[in-house]
Amino acid sequence: MVKMNILKNRSLKEHNTFGIDAKAKYYIEIKDIETLKALARNELQQLPYLILGGGSNLLFGGDFDGLVVKIDLKGKRAYEKNNHVILEASAGENWHETVLYSLDKGLNGLENLSLIPGTVGAAPIQNIGAYGVELKDIFETLEAFNIQTGEIEHFSKEECQFDYRYSTFKGPDKGRYIILKVFFRLHRNPVFTINYGSLNALLQNEKGLLNARKVSEAVIKIRQSKLPNPEEIGNAGSFFKNPVITLGYYEQLKREYPEVPGYKVNEEYIKVPAGWLIEKNGWKGKRFGHVGVHAKQALVLVNYGGASGEELIHLSKEIQAGVMEEFRIHLEPEVTIIK
Ligand SMILES: Cc1cc2nc3c(=O)[nH]c(=O)nc-3n(C[C@H](O)[C@H](O)[C@H](O)COP(=O)(O)OP(=O)(O)OC[C@H]3O[C@@H](n4cnc5c(N)ncnc54)[C@H](O)[C@@H]3O)c2cc1C
Question: How many separate domains does the chain show?
């Protein structure tokens, strides 16, 4: 018999970086597969459930009337395979500590993704990305638990269907799997991606002496100067995705706003920074009671303390409406809203 430690009416305040004081009707921490299997045979078939990592990409709109399953599976190791190195990490490992572990082992590949909050298991869900690198670039495979069948399945890169802040786990397979382990394909030989503006500028003088640790340190420095630390002020990073529009519409916008930035996706589409649209629409640095739009980064919504999820959702809708009215562009949340 597996002993289950299901807690009742548990506050989730410490489990989401917005710091929203929502309650879970039931809450359990998963530290081994056996408990997960037992849970899948019973509770997960009967109750609404939410799989939780570090809570850094979630917004609780209210209390959660079901079972919150916090994934706390631990363990990581690196080993040689053909001409590269595989880093294997369990879902409950802290993402940034895993990046540091890879640097300690002299491995290259994860450095641009330094200091992203959250866990390893959540990283493939939205194909995390920063400074020109996405998880898919160093992804080998993952192991996931099928909640319906209780089987463990493997997903290749193709099967994950990675795209910009997207994978099959946000699409057709949403809510069907619990990611248990992720395998990364890393390198002993460095191949750095430092063409991103601010990163390139910081590393200008390092060119011949560059290593993954220096890239990581530069990324950390930039992030700390631009993004609010959730331990000091509640937030979930970028609230919205950068919208992708047609080149034709972009040209039309440019006539009215010659300075509008855009990054070509392909011959047909271009990505426009959501932060620019929000700032241009006048939201940057604005505060409304407990909530607001960060003064240094318009893409980040913040909880100044004591906010409810509803207040943040209300603000996000106002921003969407303002941007739609001015630019005829829909902003889609990157953050998962739990209602
Ligand atoms: C200050 C700040 C900066 C950020 N910067 C970036 C950035 O640069 N790039 C970027 O891509 N993101 C960024 N984020 C967003 C966030 O860090 C990532 O999305 C991260 O991967 C979320 O991890 P988490 O463990 O906190 O996931 P959670 O918020 O707990 O969960 C996110 C989603 O994944 C699901 N999930 C979690 N674990 C599992 C699992 N084991 N199996 C199945 N489903 C699971 C949840 O159900 C939920 O749908 C930032 C957030 C903050 C607060």
Answer: 3
- Render pLDDT for 137-196 as a digit per residue (tens, 0 to 9): 999 999 999 999 999 999 999 999 999 999 999 999 999 999 999 999 999 988 899 988
> Are the C-beta atoms of residues 27 and 63 closer than 8 Å to each other?
no
Asked if residue 181 lies in contact with residue 147, where contact means CB atoms within 8 angstroms, the answer is no
For residue 52, what are its two tokens? 């939780």
Task: Report in angstroms the alpha-carbon separations of 279 from 152, 253, 299.
Answer: 45, 16, 8
- Residue 96, pLDDT above cutoff 90: yes
Q: What is the pTM of this model?
A: 0.96
CATH number at residue 56: 3.30.43.10
| Structural domain ending residue among the three candidates 208, 226, 244 | 226
Q: Which of 95, 116, 239, 337 to mutate to test the pocket of ligand 1 (most atoms within 8 A of CB)?
A: 116
Pocket lining for ligand 1, CB < 6 angstroms = 17, 50-58, 71, 91, 116-119, 121-123, 125-126, 128-130, 177-179, 227, 230, 235-237, 336
Task: Tell me which residue range forms the domain holding 62.
Answer: 7-71
Give the separation between CA 122 and CA 285, rounded to whole angstroms: 30
Backbone angles phi and psi of 260, in degrees to 5 = -65, 125
The pLDDT of residue 83: 82
- Domain boundary (55, 71, 87) is at 71
Residue 208, pLDDT above cutoff 80:
no
Indicate whether 2 belongs to any domain: no
- Which amino acid type is present at position 67? L
Is a pLDDT exceeding 90 seen at residue 40?
yes
- CA of residue 201 to ligand 1 center, whole Å: 28
Measure 32 CA to ligand 1 centroid, in angstroms. Answer: 21
- CA-to-CA separations, 311 to 44, 87, 298, 318, in angstroms, rounded: 30, 41, 17, 11
Q: Is the pLDDT of residue 120 over 90?
A: yes
